[in-house]
Design brief:
With 146 residues, this protein is mainly alpha-helical. The protein has one domain: Helix Hairpins (Orthogonal Bundle). Helix content is 90%, strand content 0%. The protein is built from 2 helices and no strands. Helix 1 packs antiparallel against helix 2. It is rod-shaped. The two termini are 37 Å apart.
């Protein structure tokens, strides 16, 4: 009897690998979006600080200076929140990447197992065929003893 076909298992492993790849790509896109947002926020903060320095050189009122300082503080806290979010997403990307690697390795191992199983099955069939041919040759070439 032919051994269990591993094609169904391989198809399932391939679907798992494709799913892991999709999750990795999505996590990578989210990380890139957050990184872009962080870069924009840091650039905006730098421009804002430059603007307040120019205004201080020209002369600025205390109330305006306090408002600018509050806005700078708010932007800095926003940058910190984005950095924290980016760190979390980077960890998620690494986790998904490891998951993808694991799924890929599992599928490759199953593929090698399938190839090994198929070679063993064909070897078995070849031996069985050779034995049958030997038996046929032996019975045809034996002198009739009757």
């Amino acid at each position: 009897m032919k051994p269990f076909s591993l094609q169904t298992v391989l198809d399932y492993r391939k679907r798992l690998e494709d799913l892991a790849q999709h999750r990795f790509i999505e996590a990578k896109k989210i990380q890139e979006t957050i990184q872009k947002k962080l870069n924009e926020e840091v650039h905006g903060l730098a421009l804002f600080i430059d603007e307040i320095e120019k205004m201080q050189a020209e002369g600025i009122g205390i109330t305006e200076l306090m408002r600018f300082e509050e806005r700078i503080t708010a932007r800095k806290s926003n940058v910190e929140a984005i950095k924290k979010n980016l760190t979390e997403k980077s960890a998620l990307v690494k986790k998904e990447q490891q998951s993808l690697l694991d799924r890929s390795k599992e599928r490759q191992i199953m593929d090698q197992l399938k190839d090994t199983q198929n070679r063993a099955w064909h070897l078995y069939l070849n031996k069985k065929e050779a034995a049958m041919l030997d038996e046929i040759a032996t019975t045809r070439h034996e002198p009739d003893t009757f």
